[in-house]
Automatic annotation (TrEMBL):
It comes from Euzebyella saccharophila. This is Triosephosphate isomerase. InterPro entries: Aldolase_TIM (IPR013785), TIM_sf (IPR035990), TrioseP_Isoase_bac/euk (IPR022896), Triosephosphate_isomerase (IPR000652), Triosephosphate_isomerase_AS (IPR020861). Pfam families: TIM. Its EC number is 5.3.1.1. The gene is tpiA. Involved in the gluconeogenesis. Catalyzes stereospecifically the conversion of dihydroxyacetone phosphate (DHAP) to D-glyceraldehyde-3-phosphate (G3P). Substrate binds at residues 9-11, 172, 212, 233-234. Coiled coil: none annotated. Transmembrane segments: none annotated.
Length: 249
């Protein structure tokens, strides 16, 4: 059975005091839910966030990590460092990492392997650009992103994978994929995984939608049968909005 998940990607927002304040508000306002709730503050605030949420069900996850175990990689963070502060899940492949930091499928495949080798969970992001959708190439792009980064994994690794389909044209733009567009792509993703592995793996993996999810559109998107929740950027920075989105699942 796959899990419902709502995750907040805080990106490069919130200093230490603001992080603490938002987490306190979130923990206090969290509605009763069967969904797993996750937040991804910046690296410097992760350890504090883990401490603040010690008695909460909200999980703290990381926005990124390096593929090497340790060494001369100035400014980078390893899986062991995350694990040492109690962070067990990492977002990899976010479109901003791909676009601004040139993380390609090959690098992402290494990062995924490095995280899984350490028994971390991976929230793997992928999705097409606007031109891909306009030219009708979006299914091919998504299939190749999945294939290049994930399809050489052993079947057993898939219990540690969460997928987040995030069409790049919908991230931070206010433009959302329609619930039908999200469902169509999520169903395609499950079909692609069924062909590469089997229907059990495809049926058990949680596939989140990300891209301008807000309280006003969350319910309709989350209502689609192959959408298992959301990865939320902008709207996760306001406790009331994030809580409303969690409530919508
Ligand atoms: C994201 O960054 O993963 C995201 C979905 O952002 P937003 O919700 O702001 O579009």
């Amino acid at each position: 059975m796959r899990s419902k998940i709502v995750a907040g990607n805080w990106k490069m927002n919130k200093n230490a005091a603001e992080t603490e304040a938002l987490l306190t508000e979130l923990a206090a306002k969290l509605p009763d839910t069967n969904a797993q709730v996750m937040v991804a503050p910046t690296f410097v605030n992760l350890a504090g966030a883990v401490r603040s949420l010690e008695s909460s069900v909200i999980q703290v996850i990381a926005q990124n990590m390096h593929f090497a175990e340790s060494g001369a990689y100035t400014g980078e963070i390893s899986a062991d460092m995350l694990l040492s502060i109690g962070v067990e899940t990492v977002i990899l492949g976010h479109s901003e990492r791909r676009a601004y930091f040139k993380e390609d499928d090959e690098i992402l495949a290494q990062k995924v392997k490095a995280a899984l080798d350490k028994n971390m969970k991976v929230m793997f992001c992928f999705g097409e650009e606007l031109e891909d959708r306009k030219s009708g190439n979006h299914f091919n792009v998504v299939e190749s992103q999945l294939k290049n980064a994930l399809f050489s994994l052993d079947a057993s690794a898939w219990s540690s994978i969460i997928l987040a389909y995030e069409p790049v044209w919908a991230i931070g733009t206010g433009e959302t994929a329609s619930p039908e567009q999200a469902q169509e792509m999520h169903a395609f993703i499950r079909k692609t995984i069924t062909e590469a592995y089997n229907a059990t793996i495809a049926g058990n993996v949680s596939i989140l939608y990300g891209g301008s999810v807000k309280p006003a559109n969350a319910k309709e998107i989350f209502g689609k049968p192959d959408v298992d929740g959301g990865l939320i950027g902008g709207a996760s920075l306001k406790a009331d909005d994030f809580v409303a989105i969690i409530g919508a699942i």
